TrEMBL record:
<dbReference type="GO" id="GO:0003677">
    <property type="term" value="F:DNA binding"/>
</dbReference>
<comment type="subunit">
    <text>Homodimer.</text>
</comment>
<comment type="function">
    <text>Binds to DNA and alters its conformation. May be involved in regulation of gene expression, nucleoid organization and DNA protection.</text>
</comment>
<protein>
    <recommendedName>
        <fullName>Nucleoid-associated protein CTEST_01010</fullName>
    </recommendedName>
</protein>
<keyword id="KW-0963">Cytoplasm</keyword>
<keyword id="KW-0238">DNA-binding</keyword>
<comment type="similarity">
    <text>Belongs to the YbaB/EbfC family.</text>
</comment>
<feature type="coiled-coil region">
    <location>
        <begin position="6"/>
        <end position="33"/>
    </location>
</feature>
<dbReference type="InterPro" id="IPR004401">
    <property type="entry name" value="YbaB/EbfC"/>
</dbReference>
<dbReference type="Pfam" id="PF02575">
    <property type="entry name" value="YbaB_DNA_bd"/>
</dbReference>
<dbReference type="GO" id="GO:0005829">
    <property type="term" value="C:cytosol"/>
</dbReference>
<dbReference type="InterPro" id="IPR036894">
    <property type="entry name" value="YbaB-like_sf"/>
</dbReference>
<dbReference type="GO" id="GO:0043590">
    <property type="term" value="C:bacterial nucleoid"/>
</dbReference>
<keyword id="KW-0175">Coiled coil</keyword>
Length: 107
């Protein structure tokens, strides 16, 4: 059994680190929008979870029914958060799948 080439292992580790950093930067630079009430409330957040924008259609603003508006805003935030999580899985998935990142070279 031959010993793994440490230079090759280090090069692969550095390449994976660079890919990981690029994926993280792409996630942070991407905005996702969540909606509720068939688009009556939309919330846009960055991939890092920072709120960018909240839009509330005036027709859903009813002083007699604040509970519905609160539920719609909460639902839009949840939808945006789920989409941000999906974005992270899409961008980071191949880098965080586990397994053997060195293609069997160590074993």
């Amino acid at each position: 059994m031959t010993q793994p080439d440490m230079a090759q292992i280090l090069a692969q580790a550095q390449e994976m680190q660079a890919q990981l950093q690029q994926a993280q930067a792409e996630i942070l630079a991407t905005n996702v929008t969540g909606t509720a009430g068939n688009g009556l409330v939309t919330v846009t957040i960055s991939g890092g979870g920072e709120v960018q924008e909240v839009i509330i259609d005036p027709q859903v603003v009813d002083p007699e029914d604040v509970d519905t508006l609160q539920d719609l805003v909460t639902g839009a935030f949840r939808d945006a958060h789920e989409k941000a999580g999906q974005l992270a899985v899409e961008k980071m998935g191949p880098l965080s799948q586990g397994g053997d990142p060195f293609g069997g070279m160590l074993g």
